[in-house]
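Ticket reopened. Same input as before:
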Amino acid sequence: MTRQTILNDAHRKLGARMVDFGGWEMPVNYGSQIDEHHVVRSSVGMFDVSHMTVVDIHGPQAKLFLQYLLANDVAKLTRQGKALYSCMLNESAGIIDDLIVYFLDDENYRLVVNASTREKDLAWIEEQAKSFDVSVSERSQLAMIAVQGPKARQKVCPILPERLGLSAAEIKPFSACWFGEWFVGRTGYTGEDGFEIMLPEDKAEGFWNQLIQVGVKPCGLGARDTLRLEAGMNLYGQDMDENQNPLESGLAWTVAWQPNDREFIGRAALDAIKKQGLNSKFVGLLLEEKGVLRGHQPVVLDDGSVGEITSGGYSPTMARSIALARVPASIGETCKIDMRGKLKEATVVKPCFVRQGEIQIDV
Amino acid sequence: MSNTPDDRKYADSHEWALLEADGNVRVGISDHAQELLGDLVFVELPEAGQSVGKGDECSVVESVKAASDIYSPVTGEIIAINDALEDSPEAINESAYEDGWIFIVKPTDTSELDELLDADGYQNLIEDE
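Engineering reply: fixed in the latest deploy. New output:
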């Protein structure tokens, strides 16, 4: 049974093409995916991300629990509302999911985890929580709308409930504010400024329509994917899963090794992997020929060894094809991609192609 | 709703084939196919002069979503390709049946067209999908 978000009717009225996405019926586009992509880079667009899972952690040991559960360290969160990106690992350091954690106060944190991993995440979190004085509650009655782009703040703040609009205008990137059930994080998955707004389901369609009225363009998951790919942001299930650790997924920066005595799940395995040294590398690729890079295409190195594209696609901002790939550590500055039997030339680059509307690599 | 002109035939792999006054067959993909693929970003054209058999893959269209093979609906020789698609693959999205044509085949046997679906047959096919 495919699940629907509270905005399903609104998408259909707008003529969205709906697809199954991890068990949810979601809009892939409302017309041209490329137009939707450009509007987020140059102005402002919005995405229904109500399928994502919101989990509140409450209790006297909330901080201790999350310091054990997550590879990044919530002790870094000292200012109320501050957010942190982290992986949640299993004992062998495989990535169960990637998530954002918001610090509300010492006894309250909010996690936003992926939709496709909802059941296993909740089961894992509840199992681990048994040894701590905390409660775990999923907030499935919250809708979530991501408003992204350079004009996001100027469009959103005036139409938020009054007091929230004032605080939302003040918050710094990667921080949140809230009022009642409304929660506004200055976070996103596009490489642009913007907000992710959680709100009660019964307010969602009204707010969505208000956003349309002030000129925010609805965008589908198709554009969301090309935007995050250009921003070099990993997609769970594609760029990493339980068979990979953060070090081989370009996410070493999200692992908090200090303090040395913080025991988090997966730390022992991760320590051993680090000591042994990595034989793979997570890179960005820029196709030098015509065509479109796709996930699972083989990456052939000069020395004959082979890696794999984890996600690839067309970059509307660069009008070129780009990809994220896991490759042998011996990779040089160029490589060949096996595209449907033909070897095509690609350049190896840092996996961050576009941020804040600006191309980050030499094209 | 996709539109399906009745002046031409359709393959179940979503190509259209239009028999022109000079006896050649112009080929493209249906409006339904372009809608499913989403924005097209790259077209790998066949070469003029190339011989093709009915059902041979001879071109690739790539969209933001996926790559899709284009099969020749008839046997013959490719006598023209739509070079404009190299720079403007979006012509297929904007005008699948006119500006978005992909290649022209000089057919060895036009009766092969009889084996393809007519507009009604194709419309039924895509409604069943």
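Helices of chain B lie at 31-37, 84-87, 91-94, 119-128. The domain at 9-107 of chain B is CATH 2.40.50.100 (OB fold (Dihydrolipoamide Acetyltransferase, E2P)). Please confirm and we'll close it.
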